């Protein structure tokens, strides 16, 4: 089942489509983080201002250096010891769609601890965009049942796992990291 869903989602993402999928936090809308056209489809679907960047998911912290010019040493410690899902906003984003990079050159990165996400990213061999499955300005859905039908109808594929899970999930903690290792919480 999981393998089949990963294969179906992989085909859609490789073809430039966008997917609705479960993560280690809330349900996300995603695509290949190197495909600007696909990224723009997500901005359109969410009715989101392109100045508001979205995060990328990696399958392992070993890939951080592929997408961040200089990873502050503290990033690895924060990832290792985080008890809850953690997004790190770091400067020096590279090798992803320019539409994902904030004006200051940063991008938010989370190492996914979710089987589906990890397997899809491993097979894609690129980061996956992740943004909450809601129209911009509306509350983030805490489970699949709370996702607006406009979102469900607007993606190219809805991953068929965990749709009946009604556990309330929360967005990740977000920490902004400076190149010198300084940090501040953006969302706890």
Structure description:
With 188 residues, the protein is an alpha/beta fold. 28% of the residues lie in helices and 20% in strands. It contains six helices and nine strands. The chain has helices at residues 2-14, 36-46, 64-67, 73-81, 115-124, 149-154; strands at 19-21, 28-30, 55-58, 86-90, 107-111, 128-132, 157-158, 173-177, 183-187. A nine-stranded mixed β-sheet has the order 7-1-2-6-3-5-4-8-9, with helices on both faces. β1 (19-21) and β2 form a beta hairpin. α1 packs across α5 (115-124). The longest helix is centred in the N-terminal third of the chain and has 13 residues, at 2-14. The chain is globular. It starts with a helix and ends with a strand. The mean pLDDT is 94.
Instruction: Give the N-to-C terminal Cα separation.
Output: 34 Å
Task: Tell me the number of helical segments per DSSP (H or I, 4 or more residues long).
Answer: 6
Assign the structural class, choosing from mainly alpha, mainly beta, alpha/beta, alpha+beta, or little secondary structure: alpha/beta
Number of strands: 9
Order of helices and strands: HEEHEHHEEHEHEEE
The neighbouring-strand order within the major sheet is 7-1-2-6-3-5-4-8-9
What are the segments in which pLDDT stays under 50 over at least 5 consecutive residues? none
Mean pLDDT: 94
* Portion in strands: 15-25%
Rg from C-alpha positions? Answer: 15 Å
Considering DSSP H and I runs of 4 or more, what fraction of the residues is helical? 25-40%
Tell me the major beta sheet. Answer: 9 strands, mixed
Overall, the morphology is globular
């Amino acid at each position: 089942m999981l393998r089949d869903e990963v294969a179906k989602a992989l085909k859609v993402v490789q073809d430039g489509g966008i997917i609705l999928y479960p993560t280690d936090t809330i349900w996300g809308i995603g695509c290949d983080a190197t495909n600007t056209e696909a990224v723009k489809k997500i901005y359109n679907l969410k009715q989101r201002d392109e100045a508001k960047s979205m995060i990328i998911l990696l399958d392992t912290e070993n890939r951080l250096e592929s997408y961040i010019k200089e990873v502050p040493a503290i990033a690895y410690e924060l990832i290792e010891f985080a008890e809850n899902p953690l997004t790190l906003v770091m400067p020096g984003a590279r090798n992803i769609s320019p539409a994902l990079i904030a004006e200051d050159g940063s991008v938010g990165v989370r190492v996914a601890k979710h089987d589906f996400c990890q397997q899809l990213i491993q097979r894609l061999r690129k980061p996956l965009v992740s943004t909450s499955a809601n129209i911009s300005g509306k509350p983030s859905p805490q489970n699949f049942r709370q996702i607006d039908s406009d979102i469900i109808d607007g993606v190219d594929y809805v991953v068929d796992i965990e749709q009946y899970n009604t556990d309330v999930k929360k967005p990740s903690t977000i920490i902004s990291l400076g190149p010198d290792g300084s940090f501040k919480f953006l969302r706890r």
